Amino acid sequence: MPGARRAGRTLQETLALNSPLETSPRASTAGAATQTGTSAPTPAASALSASLNPRRAAELNEIFADNGLLARQIDGYRSRASQIEMSRAVAAAMEASGRAMPEPAMFEAQKRPARRLQTGGADAAGEAAEADEAQALDGGENTLIVEAGTGTGKTYAYLVPAMLWGGKVIVSTGTKHLQDQLFQRDIPTVRDALAVPVSVAMLKGRANYLCHYYLQRTADNGRLPSRQETSYLQDIVRFAKITRTGDKAELASVPETAAVWSMVTSTRENCLGQECPHYKDCFVMQARREAQQADIVVVNHHLFFADIMLRDTGMAELLPTANTIIFDEAHQLPETATLFFGETLSTAQFLELARDSVAEGLGHARDAVDWVKLGSTLERAARDVRLAFKEDSVRLSIGQLPDDHPLFAALEALETELDALESALAGQAERAESIGACLRRARELQAVLAGWTTPPTELERQSVDTAPAGTTEGKGERADPNEKVRWIEVFAHTVQLHETPLSVAPIFAKQRAGVPRAWIFTSATLSVRGDFTHYAAQMGLNAKRSMTLPSPFDYPSQGLLYVPRNLPQPSSPMFTDAVFDAALPAIEASGGGVFMLCTTLRAVDRISARLRDVIEARGWNYPLLVQGDASRTELLDRFRAYGNAILVGSQSFWEGVDVRGDALSLVVIDKLPFAPPDDPVLSARLDALTKKGLSPFAVHQLPQAVITLKQGAGRLIRAETDRGVLMICDTRLVDKPYGRRIWQSLPPFRRTREIEVVREFFEESGNVTQQAGVD
Ligand SMILES: Nc1ncnc2c1ncn2[C@@H]1O[C@H](COP(=O)(O)OP(=O)(O)OP(=O)(O)O)[C@@H](O)[C@H]1O
Ligand code: SF4
Ligand SMILES: [Mg+2]
Fold first, then answer.
1. pTM (2 decimals)?
2. 223-264, pLDDT tens digit by residue?
3. What number of CA atoms fall less than 13 Å from residue 470's CA on the CB side?
4. Is there a contact between 567 and 623 (Cβ–Cβ < 8 Å)?
5. How far apart (Å, rounded) are the C-alpha atoms in residues 160 and 77?
6. Residue 138 region by backbone torsions, left for phi larger than 0, else alpha for psi between -120 and 50, else beta
7. How many Å lie between the centroid of ligand 2 and the Cα of residue 214?
8. I need a surface site. Which of 469, 505, 656, 709 has the fewest CB within 10 A?
9. How far is the CA of 551 from the centre of ligand 3 (A)?
């Protein structure tokens, strides 16, 4: 829902798009009505939190006050109206879910966190009996979609009520890096501020934990592809003896990409579970146990959805016990859920099965079968599937393959070899549990592979099935639950076969149905100018349960949007170089503290190479950090520590990253981040929309690009004292009719097309004089 619109001229009135992109600070606030300055939350937003028990509302006011518990713990703390409003709405959703619970369960849920606030908790329990249960049970009041601008402080806004009244809470965020940020920084800060005795655990995917069984097997076998990997293995063996968690992130000396990791970690398929001799000391099991016992569990979206589907890493047991589920960076959910609500088959699974069957067969049934031969023929057949493609790193929809494509023959041959291994395993399964486990895996692979040995149907040739009649614009992307797309991803050594549903809404809605718990979806970027239809339709949520809160920042004076003139079109081969040439004077004016965010890895390479040359030639002292040179966490730590570094990275740096102050004063974005249309799932989605008579660009691509761009822009202003320039080098923002819709969705920065204005802005900030080495 849109925020209060300020009186006065609209953006269109103040600004002819073809004229210089420049306005006075005052005039620039109207377009992005959802992100205006320091105003109070809108009446509609407040309605969602109005039902909150007054005692709890008062408690939150005190905690978030200028002299409250948080202020005592956090440097530069200021009371922010939006943050308080969001915390109230989150608490109200928790209360609603409490009302819907059977009484003993509700008591359990509120017992622990209400310890500090006994009166509030008791009152709520009393009122619960009179509450209208039916309404709360419909998945209505206990669900909240809340959008509040980047840097507003959403993390504290949900952590405070979560720690006080959330019961058992699962917080899911976008990446492992953000999981660490929450676990190591934000949660301890709030816990100390409130002085509440909550226990916290972090749960990552199984592949993050060392596996004793496979570590021992690999160490015993002693065959590794290179000397380097052998030395990594030695590090890992030493690490295994001293680590408490077995989390591979703790062993910095072995890169995340080292091949040896796959040999010393387990997969869902090859884990021996209770039959494992190491079961008692198993790190995966230990992480699960800790998650079971903790009050707050921090996970990531990949794990959350992978586990709903595969029931592997303990979420399946965790979920039923949770009273509150909070999705931060919730704009990523549709994409992530799509990945997991489908089915994926990788040729790597056949290679792993061959490897494990040979090892276990030789270990327990050496004389019965020629395991090595069976394993190597299966391996060869799996590799032949990869050889059916000449291309590398491509994604293809199955409809693009002709009937006689070599893939189909290769899959048939793979099926034959898999059948042979399966019967050998079946004959020996009695002799060892580990052989029985291989047999189960072989049978699962057989079942999935059977769906792939046939060439595409006529329907698939036309991309996707048509949508049911009666789908309207208002429903946005709601698709037939049965609409699926089969597609293929070719990597350097493996091939993945995917079957992906076009809409996750019905599956996700089913997961949420019938269980009275609070669901919070939050992010800076869920709506397009206050309209949540797109997001709600994708996730199967009710768009009416949504709110947008205004930003606490004075964007017109804190930020400047700069779109340089005379740049070529992004499709031009000269584009990346032109971006670099245009960015250079802005970088120089900034005095360092720059994110250069590129939409392709090729642009990252090109820009970082040219920057390196310029830095050397001009004797600049700006440290250059490039994505890929170190882990993301490491790069960001260095960026914060240097204070005047230049970081060149791709989209993965855009989201959730928190750098306050002068360390970041210029964000350069090369082009508008439209997803490449060669993605088979995207192109199938777009086709489906066209067939429904909708404009795929307006309904899907544009909103997605707006969300991604807002995330990039949001890195800049994180505190009332931050100042910075957002430079977007894509003139479609000004030249194309849809450009207006995009920049109106950005924070209402002052705007310019002149580098002179950028220089003046930085001079006002005093940045240039602070930096040495600028020529
Ligand atoms: N009331 C406050 N006063 C001052 N600083 C605050 C306040 N609340 C949060 N902060 C700080 O502001 C920064 C941004 O907070 P946070 O990371 O929660 O933002 P966010 O709303 O999640 O933004 P994004 O959408 O970009 O993730 C953090 O460094 C946080 O410590
Ligand atoms: S139980 Fe599974 S993950 Fe744990 S040590 Fe055994 S095989 Fe590895
Ligand atoms: Mg955040």
1. 0.75
2. 788 889 999 999 999 999 999 999 988 887 888 778 899 999
3. 2
4. no
5. 15
6. alpha
7. 8
8. 469
9. 13
